[in-house]
Amino acid sequence: MNALSGRKVVVGICGGIAAYKAAGVVSQLVQRGADVRVVMTRAAREFIAPLTLEALTRRPVLIDLFRDEPLGHVELAYWAELVVVMPATYDIIGRIASGLADEYLTALVAATRAPVLVVPAMEAQMYENPIFQRNKRELEALGYRFVEPEIGRLASGREGIGRFPAEDKIVAEVERILTEGSRLRGLRVLITAGPTRERLDPMRCITNRSSGKMGYALAEAARDMGAHVRLISGPTPLTPPAGVDLIRVESAEEMRRAVLEHAPDCDWVLMAAAVADWRPKRPLAHKESKLSAETLTLELERTPDILKELGEALKGERKRPLLVGFAAETGDLVEKARQKLEQKGLDAIVANDLSQEGAGPEVDTNAVTLIFKDGRVEALPLMPKRELAREILKRLADRLDRA
Ligand code: CTP
Questions:
Q1: pTM score, two decimals?
Q2: Residue of 135, 208, 352, 366 marked active site
């Protein structure tokens, strides 16, 4: 069966010369069995007639937020498994990035949780404009996918970047996203994220630099790949991805309880949280004034090793979740991570090299090495955490499926 058979795709066509080429892509998608609904902007109708798309899809084209079926854009936003915006003009990308929802397509993009694939095509000087590049970067950081335009002859007759990509390339990307979208379908995935906070007194605490970005990106990517996601999060100001079950915890002990309660009926446990290793042995019930002493000696005790305890608790169980640990290291990355994998009885470990520039806590990028129980090592280069999250999940699914 074709990867596109019966898949629900909304195509938003915008007002650029390449609108006629977008019709070719729509035709390809329909021929491969996709159920395609087309939305056109007002400007798109200046370039190509809705009738062409209606004939190709055998469905009415949606244009007018106020005249077409009331709330149709909302229903379509829920219906879509993927929204493709092509040719995406300078203007539409600016409007989406600014949060405008002023016509059918922008309102639909605002309302959907489906992945959005953007296919820009425009004059090189518009494509290279820093405002456009900023908008593109912002959308990419929010999880929008882009097919890069090609370099070649542009509508103005000049040469440069901005040509609408070849039809096959766009269709392949649509297939890739839709296949990826069902990669973890039906799996229950537990993810921990963020730091833990260990109380010293009612005001003071011990914590670490973890931002939770990697764990939240994993939760979002697992959700996008079809998993039911439960996210156990230490304190972070991040907004949790929509559609995941969120359990907020503060200390290592609270995280331990939540993990031990929820892990047994999950298929995967991804322990991305940076759990504090020590906590004050005797937390104070009252805030200690700094005036009470010139120096303060803290006695710390080890926190429970959640992952290790979970591994031991599940030992011998017939159906136990796959356990994936995360290790932040400086130097001797693979060897140290491999030791943790063995000590904690893990199926895989994701090792993060803190000494590499651009990788680690707080920043939006990371570079990791995946180490599997069978000894295989796979290094992933520096990339945005969102992209990295998808790559990690895909590789785990590939290898662990076969194990
Ligand atoms: N971890 C855990 N409970 C802890 C500490 C860590 O479950 N008390 C988990 C982390 O979430 C991570 C993995 O164990 O998935 C490795 O964490 P890391 O802190 O790098 O390793 P440690 O075992 O604490 O080893 P060390 O501090 O010696 O580097």
A1: 0.83
A2: 208
Q: Between β-strands 268-271 and 278-280, what pairing exists: parallel, antiparallel or unpaired?
A: unpaired
- Determine whether the shortest distance from the Cβ of 326 to ligand 1 is under 6 A: yes
CATH 3.40.50.1950 is the classification of domain 8-180: yes
Instruction: For ligand 1, pick from 210, 260, 330, 340 the residue to mutate: most ligand atoms within 8 Å of CB.
Output: 340
pLDDT digits (tens, 9 = 90+) for 179-218: 988 899 999 999 999 999 999 999 999 999 999 999 999 9
CB neighbours (10 Å) of residue 106? 22
Q: What pLDDT does 142 receive?
A: 84
The per-residue pLDDT for range 386-397, each reduced to its tens digit, is 889 999 999 999
The atom number, within ligand 1, closest to the CA of 306 reads 7
Cα(348) to centroid(ligand 1), Å: 14
User: Is 208 a residue of the active site?
Assistant: yes
Whether a cis peptide bond, with omega within 30° of 0, leads into 149 is no
Beta bridge partners of 228: 188
Hey, do 8-180 and 188-402 end up sharing a CATH topology, with the first three levels equal? yes
Q: Which fold has domain 188-402?
A: Rossmann fold (3.40.50)
Cβ atoms 221, 393 nearer than 8 A: yes
Confirm or reject: Cβ of 275 under 6 Å from ligand 1: yes
Residue 189: strand, helix, or coil: strand
Question: Would you list the domain boundaries of the chain?
Answer: 8-180, 188-402
